[in-house]
Each structure stands twice: as C-alpha cells, then as structure tokens.
Design a protein that fits this description.
The protein has helices spanning about 10-20, 40-45, 65-75, 85-115, 120-145, 160-170, 180-190, and strands spanning about 1-5, 25-30, 55-60, 60-65. By secondary structure, it is of the alpha+beta class. The longest helix has 30 residues, at about 85-115.
Length: about 230
C-alpha cells in the first residue's frame, strides 16, 4: 500500500499509526504543504478532495479521508469490534472527533504552533480555546469513567482511540495545558506504549510537537496513480 501524506498532518498520522499497530508496510509519498504540492495538478488528479491522507490500496485504487481509511484497515482486526453495539460506540466517538474535537485544536495549532493563521483575531482564539477545552473535557470525563480501559472499548483500543490521539497529543502546540486532564495524560501514555507506535516524525523520538517540515527531496506524484 502507498500513503500520500505530509510530514505534519495529524490526519495522515492516524493512518501511519494504524498501519504501525497492524504491522502493515506502507510506502510513503510525502508531499510538502510549504512548497505547495497539494495545490498542483499532479496531486489533484489523484486526489479529488485535495487533501491528505490518500491510501492507494491497489493500482489506481485510492481511499480518501482518515476516518474511512481507518475503517478499511481495521476490518478483521480487534481495532474494529465485532459487536454492533461496540461498533456504534466507535462511530459515535469518530463523529465527535470530526465534528467537535479536531477543528478547534487544529485552528489553535495552526495559529500558535505553525504560525499560518495570521488573520486570526483575539476573539477567534478565545472561541477556539473554549471549544477545545469543551471537547477535551468531554474526552476527559469519558476516560475518567473507564480507568484502565479505552475511549469506548475495554481490553483493546479501537480506531476511535487512533482518531482522537493525534490532535489531542498535539494540543499543547495550541497553548492547551494537558496537565488539567489527568485521565487524558494517562491514556496518551498508554497509547504510546502500544507495540508499533510511531512518532509524528518516525525516525525522531519525541518529535510529536515539531513545527517545521524537515528538508526532503520528495516530489508531487506524477502519472496516473495518486490520490489524497
């Protein structure tokens, strides 16, 4: 399988985490946001949504959106539970991550960590901060009510844990102090001890809060095969 991603993408990190935990080898085509690779025609030809991650599961066969890719990879594994009620709970937390959790944390990370939201006002930042703390408070209460368990499963984590992990982990880049959330900190530590765990920059331990792209000769995809 081939993954089209960028170095700092939290959504692409989800896919790499899933592959690492499953022992699924991935070939990476790492593009550059800073160089504008995602805006180029070669990438857009394979990625109609214009976003990473894109997973090529076979010649010319592409999957889009991190939540859908996690679902695809988790089939037949403990990361996607077999019981319908448990599947429903996983879908609930996947929806929460996309609709309420990810966006304010992303905005704060872009503003404070990556310095790309230069037009953000104090009111914007205050709004995103309040929304981020509300979402983290919901996650904290869920985890605190299930000591030693996972977000919505018991003995084994699910793709809901993978979906919620990256932007929770990177929230300090948006000036969110996670020490106020002890259950989240314990969950993050347990998650990072799972066999197959990958750092944001896989070859650099402790790199989860890195802000800069590393120099790399990667190029936008060319030819018929590519999708985000």
């Amino acid at each position: 399988m081939k993954l089209y991603d960028t170095q700092r993408s939290g959504n692409a990190w989800k896919v790499r985490l899933m592959a690492g935990f499953l022992g699924v080898p991935l070939t990476r085509q790492t593009l550059s946001i800073d160089r504008g690779d995602l805006r180029g025609d070669p990438f857009r030809r394979i990625a109609p949504l214009g976003l990473v991650p894109v997973l090529e599961v076979g010649p010319g066969d592409y999957m889009y959106e991190s939540m859908a890719i996690l679902f695809r990879l988790a089939q037949g594994t403990p990361w996607w539970p077999s019981a319908v009620d448990d599947q429903t709970r996983v879908l609930t937390w996947l929806s929460f991550e996309q609709s309420r959790h990810m966006h304010p944390i992303v905005k704060l990370r872009l503003h404070f960590g990556l310095k790309t939201l230069k037009a953000a006002t104090e009111a914007d930042v205050a709004h995103w901060t309040a929304e981020a703390h509300e979402a983290l408070g919901i996650l904290e209460r869920q985890l605190a009510s299930r000591p030693g368990q996972w977000v919505c499963t018991t003995a084994h984590p699910s793709i809901a844990d993978i979906a919620l992990y990256p932007y929770t982990r990177m929230s300090p880049m948006g000036r969110i102090d996670l020490s106020a959330y002890p259950a989240i900190e314990e969950w993050l530590a347990r998650f990072e001890r799972l066999p197959g765990y990958q750092w944001l920059f896989p070859d650099i331990p402790g790199s989860n809060l890195n802000t800069a792209e590393l120099p790399a000769p990667s190029r936008p995809p060319t030819g018929h095969s590519a999708k985000e």
